[in-house]
């Protein structure tokens, strides 16, 4: 399994020395700077020695400093805001043609990152949990809202009870009030308040619902609160963030649900298409 940054930090939380934790805390507090620093610069800025940096990346399972740095860059791509992303992108292109080519390369790179981190066993487990759920609650805001909305719509076509939560934040708790054991809560977490998401995961988890966290957010504490957590990036450091990976994941999960659902689910989809075609003919006539 290709464990990413948050999983490694979570696994070694109790074994990091105080100085190693200082280093990790500095990177988390200053990701936009830290992930571009040389080893000497990082030591100076974080106030740690070179042996501390070496022992830290080795403890986390990285072969060298560059592997350590690339992992941090990939994981902390999520927090870059829209203005920063645009400014970075426009510094590297001179024409709209350049812009289009660069955008496509970035999208491809983002999907490659998704492929690297997305474990098929995790996707299958979540798909089976969806099929077994009484009600599937999908919570998201901002970047995550579109893939959540897509899943809510398409899962209903599969005969599953899927409800979209999060369009009206003051009423999120009202929407989640009916959650009970046997339900599933899936959240796309990109721009939401991590404290709020952690609270919602605890709330529904305490009620016995299965919890699924899909995120590109660098918050290891969130991972331990979810039954299933999947790292889905939002973009690259040097270009505008996009919905390519979150939407691709939503489509992959939907296909996995249909695949695991087998002949019964396929028959339902065929019946639905028959009804849709017949309905169109009747109305046109």
Count of individual beta strands: 5
Could you state the CATH homologous superfamily of the largest domain? Answer: Glucose-6-phosphate isomerase like protein, domain 1
Q: What general outline do the C-alpha atoms trace?
A: globular
The portion of residues forming beta strands comes to: 5-15%
**Quaternary form:** single chain
Rg, rounded, reads 21 Å
Order of helices and strands: HHHHHHHHHEHEHEHEHEH
N→C terminal distance: 56 Å
Total count of helical runs of at least 4 residues: 14
Q: Could you characterize the architecture of this molecule?
A:
There is one protein chain. It contains 14 helices and five strands. By secondary structure, it is of the alpha/beta class. The protein has a five-stranded parallel sheet, with helices on both faces.
How would you describe this structure in keywords?
Arc Repressor Mutant, subunit A, five-stranded parallel beta sheet, 2 domains, 285 residues, alpha/beta
What is the topological layout?
Elements: H1 5-11, H2 18-29, H3 31-34, H4 39-46, H5 50-59, H6 65-75, H7 82-91, H8 96-117, H9 120-132, E1 136-140, H10 145-157, E2 162-165, H11 172-176, E3 184-189, H12 194-206, E4 210-215, H13 220-223, E5 228-231, H14 244-284
Parallel strand pairs: 1-2, 1-3, 3-4, 4-5
Helix pairs in contact: 8-14, 9-14, 10-14
Short summary of the structure?
The chain is an alpha/beta fold and 285 residues long.
